[in-house]
């Protein structure tokens, strides 16, 4: 869903100083000042106006300390050593990881870190997690690891490579081990025995006539799917089956340019910006959102962790280089994930990028209404997303600008502007006004365009039916943001890391809207409540088919009727009538006359389909229970196609099948096995 009640109903949570500060600001500003604010027509003027109010500077923004602790790190390392000696490798790995997070890390002092990471690689080797061991070993040799100990790590590397059948690389690693033994400070007999063991391995490998590395098996989520059909010529994250249109009533929206079938992949898009919730910072990568197996630390703080050296390096070179000293302030302020995303848009690109964009933004840069490619890494696609500034009240602008000022002051403390603070806290340089206005602009557009990024948490592997979706953080996807809402959506979304995959969950005819869902679905929520929610949060009146026709919720669907599609055709081939024929389930008639086209529809075929699909549904569910999710998805897709060809929704069997398809697709994205906690 789009970020709604969890993150964007309000700019702050129920805890943190920002909520209190908003209240103080509301109480202190006069009606005259609020009226003056309402007359301002640009974000630059709004930001400058509110920034001059003394009350917005009442709190202090400070950089926070790192949390690194050499003593604690040493104690945790010793705990790991004891667990390792006792053969408790899982416990040892956890202690070493905690130690790694605590070790002070400076460029000229990485020996202790290198030794602890090397120790952890040994636990991964014994746990048969060879790829993780190799990842640690690569890091070890980029640090100041003692040369006299390198033979142990190289030997471990060789044996890991051997285990994953990388024979050519294993041979080279054993040769390096033999060379490294020259530096080893070992008793003569022990060194000689180690050398003999390595020589035996070299001899065995040399006997292979063809010494090669086998192709490595990539994890299921390591490769992104491709869109169905071809990549769109302009909207590079979308399928060529997607068309983007625009009109006065509906704004920008997606329609099918081809016949879209259930299961078609319509969008595969990396997030322009994504921010992990603070509560998951200890369990998920702060950069890519993947669940941590081997955590890699920030070199300055203990608040966040990364799943790999690659994610660590990219984050430390971009957003976390700015956010590290201010992250504690941002989290403790109670600012929502939307606010953190507004700042991250800036921190991940740096000041120069946006200053270089300033003239382009002022001249106008609507990529949708141009012939240019619409790329998810292009800031112009973000800048022009709808923010509904014309519908906002002066109070909304006041509080939103107050939040932008908090984010701005955090950036100043973090050194984002690469300049000394001005003599007066309330004096702004032109570049600062520009950045402050961008923050305010981001807060507006993110309210209506950000999406929740989630993970499927299972109690047992492949146990999909009892899995629950967990909110990990927020992301902005510029192409997906162009899709409009329906209470009966045509697509569902899942995530691989911070990349969204949108797939069709019903057949969509050429020219029909491809709708996603902003939260309320007709099967679960009454129409009045759905429409009130959408009007309040997204500023539009929903005119989708379930709202216009007041479709019943799932539990209220009438089991005493069947909704047959009229089979009236033109020339016996093309269906010409779109009428739905309502037939009681206890009817004794098999030929039903359509009131619109006056042709007869034989419902015997429909009854036979219902009978067949019931057995097929049980088979698909059995496949799901056995963990054969892709086979189950194929079967559910076949069922939905049959049902859709005969009957028209809403009816229970259709929506049960559609929900099963959603569950299958969600299992292809972020997921983890989390044991259910036993409550006493």
UniProtKB/TrEMBL annotation:
Keyword Zinc annotated: yes
SUPFAM superfamilies assigned: HIT/MYND zinc finger-like, SET domain, TPR-like
InterPro entries documented for this protein: SET-MYND_domain_protein, SET_dom_sf, SMYD4_SET, TPR-like_helical_dom_sf, Znf_MYND
Family matches, as PROSITE patterns: ZF_MYND_2
Keyword Metal-binding on entry: yes
Record GO terms (molecular function): histone deacetylase binding; methyltransferase activity; zinc ion binding
A cellular component annotation (GO) from this entry: nucleus
Keywords per UniProt: Metal-binding, Methyltransferase, S-adenosyl-L-methionine, Transferase, Zinc, Zinc-finger
Top-level division of the source organism's lineage: Eukaryota
One of the GO biological process terms: methylation
Domain MYND-type: start-end pairs: 285-324
Protein name as annotated: MYND-type domain-containing protein
């Amino acid at each position: 869903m789009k970020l709604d009640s969890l993150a964007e109903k309000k700019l702050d949570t129920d805890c943190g100083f920002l909520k209190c500060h908003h209240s103080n600001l509301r109480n202190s500003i006069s009606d005259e000042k609020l009226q003056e604010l309402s007359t301002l027509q640009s974000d630059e003027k709004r930001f400058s106006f509110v920034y001059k109010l003394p009350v917005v500077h009442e709190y202090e923004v400070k950089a926070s300390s790192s949390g690194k602790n050499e003593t604690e790190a040493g104690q945790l390392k010793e705990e790991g050593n004891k667990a390792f000696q006792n053969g408790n490798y899982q416990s040892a790995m956890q202690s070493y990881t905690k130690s790694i997070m605590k070790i002070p890390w400076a460029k000229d002092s990485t020996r202790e870190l290198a030794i602890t990471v090397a120790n952890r690689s040994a636990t991964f080797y014994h746990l048969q997690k060879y790829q993780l061991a190799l990842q640690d070993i690569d890091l070890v040799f980029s640090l100041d690891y003692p040369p006299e100990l390198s033979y142990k790590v190289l030997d471990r590397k060789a044996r890991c490579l051997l285990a994953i059948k990388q024979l050519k690389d294993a041979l080279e690693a054993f040769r390096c081990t033999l060379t490294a033994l020259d530096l080893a400070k070992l008793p003569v007999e022990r060194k000689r025995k180690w050398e003999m063991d390595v020589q035996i391995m070299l001899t065995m490998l040399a006997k292979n006539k063809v010494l090669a590395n086998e192709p490595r098996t990539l994890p299921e989520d390591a490769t992104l799917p491709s869109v169905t059909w071809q990549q769109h010529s302009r909207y590079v994250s979308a399928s060529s089956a997607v068309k983007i249109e625009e009109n006065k009533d509906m704004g920008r929206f997606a329609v099918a340019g081809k016949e879209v079938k259930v299961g078609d992949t319509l969008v595969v898009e990396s997030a322009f910006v994504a921010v992990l919730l603070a509560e998951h910072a200890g369990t998920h990568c702060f950069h890519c959102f993947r669940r941590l197996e081997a955590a890699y630390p920030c070199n300055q703080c203990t608040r966040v962790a990364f799943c790999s050296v690659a994610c660590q390096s990219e984050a430390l070179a971009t957003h976390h280089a700015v956010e590290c000293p201010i992250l504690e302030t941002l989290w403790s302020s109670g600012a929502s994930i939307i606010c953190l995303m507004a700042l991250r848009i800036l921190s991940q690109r740096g000041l120069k990028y946006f200053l270089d964009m300033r003239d382009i933004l002022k001249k106008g840069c609507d990529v949708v209404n141009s012939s240019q490619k619409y790329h998810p890494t292009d800031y112009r696609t973000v800048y022009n997303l709808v923010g509904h500034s014309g519908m906002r009240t002066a109070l909304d602008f006041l509080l939103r600008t107050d939040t932008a000022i908090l984010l701005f002051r955090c950036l100043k403390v973090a050194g984002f502007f690469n300049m000394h603070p001005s003599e007066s806290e309330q004096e702004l340089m032109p570049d600062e006004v520009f950045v402050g206005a961008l923050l305010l602009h981001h807060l507006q557009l993110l309210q209506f365009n950000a999406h929740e990024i989630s993970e499927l948490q299972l109690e047992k592997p492949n146990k999909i039916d009892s899995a629950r979706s967990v909110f990990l953080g927020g992301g902005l996807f510029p192409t997906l943001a162009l899709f409009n809402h329906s209470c009966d959506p045509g697509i569902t979304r899942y995530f691989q890391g911070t990349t969204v995959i949108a797939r069709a969950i019903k057949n969509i005819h050429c020219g029909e809207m491809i709708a996603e869902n902003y939260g309320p679905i007709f099967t679960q929520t009454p129409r009045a409540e759905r429409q009130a929610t959408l009007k309040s949060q997204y500023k539009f009146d929903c005119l989708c088919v379930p709202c216009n026709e007041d479709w019943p919720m799932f539990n209220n669907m009438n089991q005493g009727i069947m909704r047959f599609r009229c089979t009236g055709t033109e020339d016996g081939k093309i269906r010409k009538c779109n009428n739905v024929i309502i037939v009681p389930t206890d009817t004794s008639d098999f030929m039903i006359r359509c009131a619109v086209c006056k042709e007869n529809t034989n419902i015997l075929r429909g009854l036979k389909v219902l009978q067949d699909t019931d057995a097929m549904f049980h088979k698909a569910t059995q496949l799901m229970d056995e963990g054969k999710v892709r086979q189950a998805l194929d079967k559910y897709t076949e069922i939905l196609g049959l049902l859709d060809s005969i009957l028209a929704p809403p009816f229970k069997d259709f929506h049960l099948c559609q929900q099963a398809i959603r569950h299958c697709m969600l299992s292809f994205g972020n997921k983890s096995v989390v044991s259910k906690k036993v409550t006493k």
